[in-house]
């Protein structure tokens, strides 16, 4: 039997699909596939074109300088995170190396960031408390990470034997069962999970979502995070051991603990901290600017302080004689790659999501700054892949979450660094420090690290000065800034950031719900500008609505049209004498005569045409949804029934397509839609 019509349609559809698959297969040639793979490795594109004679010396000097700056900063960030100080150096080594392979920015330098380190520390504290509560033991995870317990000192050498949970050789036999995942295992799991999330961001091209993390949201969050970092470091700076606090409003309890234990501050530690802070402030604010004019590179005052601190502690025996807490043992062996603990990823998902979002937002912000300052293109889509790959591969080493930093990105360029190889030389310099100078760092006082971090917070805290620029003109943006800062400080960092983003989006929705509207009047050049009164001739009102016409703003649009007509009618039929007509040097009788003539002309105009002519300028409506289009038709029908001559000015192709695809022209009519205000006014007979 011959095939039916349905069978023929099915066969035709299948044939079309097969033909489409064949065309797609032809397009995916080996050359195209190879080009796609190469695009994930930008180093294969820029390294063959590297100008060795021109760029090598600058990259070498920039990398060495960056490595010098990263030594004290990395150790200080490790202290905030709550892990062995050597892991702060690893965090400055491996991410920078992997970024060379995947990154497109010549100047971005990946490493630890104070706010991310504190987020990681909070996750470690939460996991430690949950583990201790589940096993009815005292919290030991953080003690293990900090190396403060005598019997429970987890040296985190687990990465040398393939176990990321605990090293049985460093624990008492009775404590092996009690010990949960140690600090660096949690940190690497966070890094791996956030890296996977960033890869997903790249696959769905989610870098545009960073627009929701506006500059005001991020600035307020960073200032609020600085407050958290301050209270996290004030304990070591004063020689106080404060209990673990976590969860919403934990900062209140932290301040309470600080007040309660303030009488127990350790005097030698306070003296060292105060001396370190004074040294850094004087050298950075007063000596540094003068030395910058003498030398061709910035002087690393933090490294000078570290050397002085190590020397003084070692020769004066401050650790043994005055009980000054020091960094302690610094492993000098190269870490063996170890798979992260994937079973921790589910428990850490929300913290990892927040870290992934914050790291992405900060990285993109730094990349935009670098792109603008050094005038070259950065592929932000590839940057998301770069962050993700860096996080995933670095998690096989003892590394905590990373992102770009302004200081790191600028220091290398300041002394000649011009390509990604700057990061390679920086990593090699830091690796040399670990292998050959690491043992000397065990005498470094922890209070010196805390002092370095406290002074480094100054620039971030000074971002609060942006409020002075926002408040006079952009009060809503200032409100978002303040709300982000207050929520981050008073509630918690993770939840505070999410609430701030929701609040910023809510203000955008509210502002789109209440857009402004204006009268337009003809100016001297023949164009139209905003005015309080509107068009002057022939009873025409030119009305413009500045904002999208959505379901949230349709009521506002309807009210604005009604107010516009009422205001115009009141002005047109009014018989009052304006104040300016009673002032000046002319005689009063001449003014009265001129006013009567004006009233007579208005009456004659009213006799000629008593209708109101309304021109609705839709050119400032970026988009119109279904409810908005429905409102346009309803307002037109209502106003025509009231005797108003109403026309629209539209030139957006998208909106005109919606008119064609719906019954709009059946209600309004094509002769009521124009592409310019001039055409609408001329078609209405106004000469």
Automatic annotation (TrEMBL):
SUPFAM superfamilies: SpoIIaa-like (SSF52091)
GO cellular component terms given for this protein: membrane
InterPro entries per UniProt: SLC26A/SulP_dom (IPR011547), SLC26A/SulP_fam (IPR001902), STAS_dom (IPR002645), STAS_dom_sf (IPR036513)
Residues annotated as transmembrane: 87-105, 184-209, 221-244, 264-282, 294-316, 344-364, 384-404, 424-457, 478-506
Domain STAS: 530-684
Membrane topology according to the record: Multi-pass membrane protein
GO biological process: transmembrane transport
Cell location: Membrane
Keywords: Membrane, Transmembrane, Transmembrane helix
Protein name: STAS domain-containing protein
Species this protein is from: Pristionchus fissidentatus
């Amino acid at each position: 039997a011959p095939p039916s019509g349905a069978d023929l349609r099915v066969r035709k559809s299948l044939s079309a699909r097969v033909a489409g698959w064949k065309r797609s297969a032809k397009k995916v040639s080996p050359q195209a596939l190879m080009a796609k793979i190469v695009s994930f490795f930008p180093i294969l594109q820029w390294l063959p074109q590297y100008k060795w004679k021109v760029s090598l010396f600058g990259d070498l000097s920039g990398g060495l300088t960056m490595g010098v700056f990263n030594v004290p900063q990395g150790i200080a960030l490790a202290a905030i995170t709550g892990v062995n100080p050597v892991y702060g150096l690893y965090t400055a080594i491996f991410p920078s190396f992997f970024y060379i392979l995947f990154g497109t920015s010549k100047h971005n330098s990946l490493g630890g960031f104070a706010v991310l380190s504190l987020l990681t520390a909070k996750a470690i504290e939460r996991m430690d408390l949950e583990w201790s509560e589940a096993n009815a033991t005292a919290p030991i995870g953080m003690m293990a990470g900090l190396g403060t317990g005598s019997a429970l000192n987890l040296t985190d050498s687990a990465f040398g034997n393939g176990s990321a949970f605990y090293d049985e050789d460093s624990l008492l036999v009775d404590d092996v069962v009690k010990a949960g995942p140690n600090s660096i295992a949690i940190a690497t799991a966070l890094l791996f999970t956030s890296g996977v999330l960033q890869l997903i961001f790249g696959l769905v091209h989610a870098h545009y979502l960073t627009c929701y993390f506006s500059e005001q949201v991020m600035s307020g969050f960073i200032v609020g995070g600085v407050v958290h970092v301050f209270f996290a470091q004030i304990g070591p700076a004063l020689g106080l051991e404060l209990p673990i606090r976590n969860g919403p409003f934990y900062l209140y309890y932290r301040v309470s603990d600080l007040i309660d234990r303030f009488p127990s501050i350790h005097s030698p530690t306070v003296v060292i901290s105060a001396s370190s802070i004074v040294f850094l402030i004087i050298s950075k604010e007063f000596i540094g600017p003068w030395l910058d004019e003498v030398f061709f590179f910035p002087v690393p005052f933090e490294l000078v302080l570290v050397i002085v601190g190590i020397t003084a502690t070692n020769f004066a025996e401050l650790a043994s004689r005055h009980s000054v807490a020091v960094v302690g043992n610094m492993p000098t062996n190269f870490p063996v790659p170890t798979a992260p603990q994937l079973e921790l990823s589910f428990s850490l998902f929300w913290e990892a999501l927040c870290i992934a979002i914050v790291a992405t937002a900060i990285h993109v912000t730094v990349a935009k700054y670098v792109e603008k300052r050094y005038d070259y293109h950065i592929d932000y889509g590839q940057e998301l892949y770069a962050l993700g790959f860096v996080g995933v591969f670095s998690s096989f080493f003892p590394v905590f979450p990373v992102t770009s930093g302004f200081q790191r990105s600028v220091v290398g360029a300041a002394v000649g660094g011009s390509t990604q190889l700057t990061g390679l030389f920086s990593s090699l310099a830091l690796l040399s420090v670990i292998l050959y100078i690491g043992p000397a760092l065990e005498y470094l006082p922890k209070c010196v690290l805390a002092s370095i971090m406290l002074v480094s917070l100054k620039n971030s805290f000074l971002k609060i000065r942006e409020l002075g620029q926002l408040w006079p003109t952009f009060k809503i943006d200032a409100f978002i800034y303040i709300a982000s800062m207050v929520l981050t400080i008073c509630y918690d960092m993770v939840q505070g950031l999410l609430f701030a983003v929701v609040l910023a989006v809510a203000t955008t929705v509210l502002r789109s719900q209440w857009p402004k509207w204006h009268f337009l009047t003809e100016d001297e050049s023949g164009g139209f500008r905003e005015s309080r009164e509107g068009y002057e001739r022939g009873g025409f009102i030119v009305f413009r609505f500045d904002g999208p016409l959505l379901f949230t703003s349709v009521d506002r649009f309807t009210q604005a049209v009604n107010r516009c007509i009422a205001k115009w009618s009141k002005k047109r039929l009014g018989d009052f004498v304006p104040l300016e007509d009673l002032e000046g040097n002319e005689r009063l009788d001449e003014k009265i005569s001129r006013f009567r003539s004006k009233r007579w002309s208005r009456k004659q105009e009213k006799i000629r045409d008593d209708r109101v002519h309304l021109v609705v300028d839709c050119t400032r409506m970026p988009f119109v949804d279904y409810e908005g289009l429905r409102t346009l038709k309803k307002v037109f029908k209502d106003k025509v029934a009231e005797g108003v001559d109403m026309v629209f000015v539209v030139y957006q192709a998208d909106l005109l397509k919606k008119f064609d695809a719906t019954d709009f022209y059946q209600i309004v009519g094509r002769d009521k839609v124009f592409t310019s205000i001039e055409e609408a006014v001329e078609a209405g007979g106004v000469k």
